[in-house]
Design brief:
This protein has helices at 54-83, 85-96, 147-154, 157-168, 217-225, 231-237, 246-265; strands at 3-7, 12-16, 41-42, 50-51, 107-115, 130-139, 173-184, 191-194, 199-203. It has 267 residues and is of the alpha+beta class. It folds into two domains: 3-67, no CATH class; 84-265, no CATH class. One of its GO terms (molecular function) is zinc ion binding. This is MYND-type domain-containing protein.
């Protein structure tokens, strides 16, 4: 089975059919003679580095442990996106109003999240490696803080052209997601890092002009991922109401941010 090599800084996952046969411990005593005929085992947690022995793994752990967690985030992220693909498609349709507008061509969905082990104990177990703090829609031409760099990287002319082609072919377009991992809520400025590469979903189904959007998609999305809303609850609680105004959405965003930070600070 190929080893997946992950670069957390770039958010890129490579499949290596013939990974380099080398022990990750720099001072490994076997390096000079090589590892021919010796089986190297991957780290059980991140599956990104190999060792020739338990002794080398133990010696390397103080140096590897920080990277190990970063690698695990990337690995979990890809699995998480696949698992929740169905939900993210619903989020894209709701947040970008893809059935009745062309907002998908001009906006991106930002999702702020933290490790689930940072969630307050009173919330009970979180069935996801990540805890959703808040979500919002942001214009692609936003120039606030470092977001413009991220957005320009994903909303390339080719990517936007693909979205237009999907729409011209009868679909809804290509939705862009940026996931931001909150390292430290109370630093000034807040320590927020973009988690891996941005995610895109192509909505090729035709739009439904009569579609009526739900009120509060952010809360429903977070509730499902955080294990507080079941699919049955979603079916009962999603009400078809008029779309929120921009002022309403900005007010909801600030309320969600405060609620999310309060939850984390009480843990």
């Amino acid at each position: 089975m190929p080893l997946s090599r992950v670069d957390p800084m770039l958010g890129v996952c490579f499949a290596e059919d013939s990974p380099e046969r080398d022990c990750a411990y720099p001072a490994c005593p076997r390096k000079p003679s090589g590892y021919t005929g010796r089986k190297l085992k991957v780290c059980a947690k991140c599956k990104q580095v190999r060792y020739c022995s338990k002794e080398c793994q133990k010696q390397h752990w103080p140096e590897h442990k920080d990277n190990c967690r970063e690698y695990q985030v990337v690995v979990n992220y890809y699995g998480w996106m696949t698992e929740y693909d169905w939900l993210l498609r619903w989020v894209a349709a709701e947040a970008l109003r893809t059935h009745t507008t062309d907002d998908i061509l001009y906006n991106i969905i930002e999702i702020y999240l933290a490790y689930s082990d940072r969630a307050p104990a009173r919330l009970g177990p979180i069935p996801s490696p990540f805890y959703i703090v808040l979500s919002k829609v942001t214009p692609l031409n936003s120039s606030s803080d470092s977001s413009s760099i991220v957005f320009s990287n994903i909303a390339t002319p080719n990517a936007l052209q693909k979205s237009r082609e999907i729409r011209a072919g009868g679909g809804q377009g290509r939705a862009f997601f940026v996931f931001k991992f909150i390292e430290d809520f109370f630093s000034k400025p807040m320590n927020v890092n973009t988690l891996c590469r941005p995610w895109t979903i192509d909505l090729t189904n035709p739009p439904n002009p009569g579609y009526k959007y739900s009120l509060g998609w952010q809360g429903l999305f977070a509730g499902i991922v955080n294990g507080k809303i079941s699919l049955d609850d979603l079916g009962r609680n999603v009400e078809k109401r008029p779309a929120l105004t921009d002022a309403d959405m900005e007010e909801d965003f600030m309320d969600d941010l405060v609620d999310g930070l309060n939850d984390i600070s009480m843990s």
